[in-house]
Amino acid sequence: MARTDAIVLGAGVVGTSVALHLAKRGLSVALVDREGVGQQTSFGNAGIIEGNTIFPPAFPADLGALARIALKRAPEANYHLSFLPKVLPWLMAFRAASQPERLVENAHLIRPLFASAVPEHEALMKEAGAMQYLRKTGWLKVFRKESSFKSLQREFDVAADLGLPLQPLDAAGAQALEPSLAGVFPRAVFWPEAASVSNPFRVTLAYASRLRALGGVTVSGDARTLHRKGQDWRVETDEGGVDAPEVVVALGPWAGGFLRGFGLRLPMAIKRGYHRHFRGQGNATLARPVLDADVGYVVTPMEMGIRMTTGVEFASRDAQPTPVQFDRIMPRARELFPLGERADDKTWMGCRPCFADSRPVIGRAPGLDGMWLAIGHAHWGLTLGPATGRMIAEMIGGATPFVDPAPYRAERFTG
What are the start-end ranges of the H helices in 98-218? Predict the structure, then answer.
């Protein structure tokens, strides 16, 4: 293949967005993935563009919740015992990052990027002819315990400081938004500035199609073949070697091992998650994603049916799937929403790449000239894909990024 201006490794929504933004700035781009566009982590998620995000998920502070998780009875989390020694240092760092003062500090650091999430997606969707997938209907979080709702006061205060709207509701107020929900909860919160998509996979495909229309190429190749060739980077693909002075690593849960091969060690962990699709009973429908906060799952309307996504599972990335959380979730889920029969015959599993402070790494790879990182997006790969793509493209092009990149630099881990 001919020499390009930039190689992007990883064709999930983050890598595809990076490649598209580079092409929009007139660069020749090769988007490389061994599985194809949107086939891995980006395929399965709740479809939420979380413009409302303030606090990331936190380490459980409640001893009862910790005990349920330890005893493998918690619907919101599961683990493989053999994996715990490997992930324990990360869990301790995650616990430290979950202290109240750190959460508030982090909320202010990440807010500019999350505030751009919905408009950046909307801009790309208009260009890519994908607006039919976008719903600007917010999302709803329901709470079965009054204590859980009251514990949100700090988050409400930060939301007020940041000018982010929210609507506390009782069960009747929530049912006015979602009439098919049963009133098994006393309180809810509606976040109107969130959006969602009805098919995340199709959105990623639309971004890739727009990339190709701008002259970019999508090719099959293995990122592990990346090596130096003179002053350039080269990756081997099914269509031959591709050379470029710049390479962007957007490999999601494969990024950690890949970067270790270049001597760069970043403390990234994997959270696995699962989804299944269901039909609604009778005329039961949803207009937006709904989080059952005290149980630990999301139900969200998709083109394929009602998608249920589980909480987290700590296990080796490539270990056999163990979707036991569905057994814990299903009785409670059917209390809340009249789920019918399965609309699929396969349980999907994916891996979320996470840093303990819940911020992605976006920017230069320390010590590796011409290499850029767009990794560690945790629960927000879909949310932050276009914003990340714009930031990386602006930095590669020598422009001032529209969001301050300082909170996302890899040097916060490498010194």
Answer: 100-115, 117-128, 146-150, 153-162, 171-177, 200-213
Dihedral, CA atoms, 271, 381, 285, 288, nearest 10 degrees?
A: 120
The pLDDT tens digits for 267-283 are 999 999 999 999 999 99
pLDDT given at position 10: 97
DSSP notation for 208-240: HHHHHHTT-EEEEB-GGG-EEETTEEEEEETTE
The closest of 196, 194, 253, 203 to 43, measured between CA atoms, is 203
pLDDT at residue 1 in the model: 59
CB atoms within 10 A of CB 220: 13
Q: Residues of the chain whose pLDDT is less than 70?
A: 1
Question: With the CA atoms of 321, 325, 326 and 332 taken in that order, what torsion angle do they form, in degrees rounded to the nearest 10?
Answer: -170
Q: Is residue 280 a contact partner of residue 273, using CB atoms and an 8 Å limit?
A: no
Decide if 282 contacts 347 (C-beta within 8 A).
no
Whole-model pTM? Answer: 0.96
Burial (Cβ within 10 Å: 0-12, 13-18, ≥19) of residue 283: exposed
